[in-house]
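Hi everyone,

Forwarding the result from last night's run.
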Amino acid sequence: MDWAGRRADHLRSYVYEHGTPARRFYSRHGFVETGRTRPVGFTDGVTLEMVRALGQVGRPGSSPR
C-alpha cells in the first residue's frame, strides 16, 4: 500500500459476491464496497468492487505526514 500510495489515490479490488472470507479480509484492511459490480464470466454471479483510499505520501505536490 505504501508503494501504491505514491502512485495513486486509491486501490480497487473486485471480490466474488459469495467470497465472504475475502470480503471480510478487505473490509478489515479499509476497503469499502462501492455498489459497482461486474459479471464473473465463467460462472454465475458477479464480482463486487471494493475500494480503499490511500495516503498521499511521497506523491509529487503532496505534503509529508
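Confidence is low (pLDDT under 50) at residues 61-65.

Cheers,
N.
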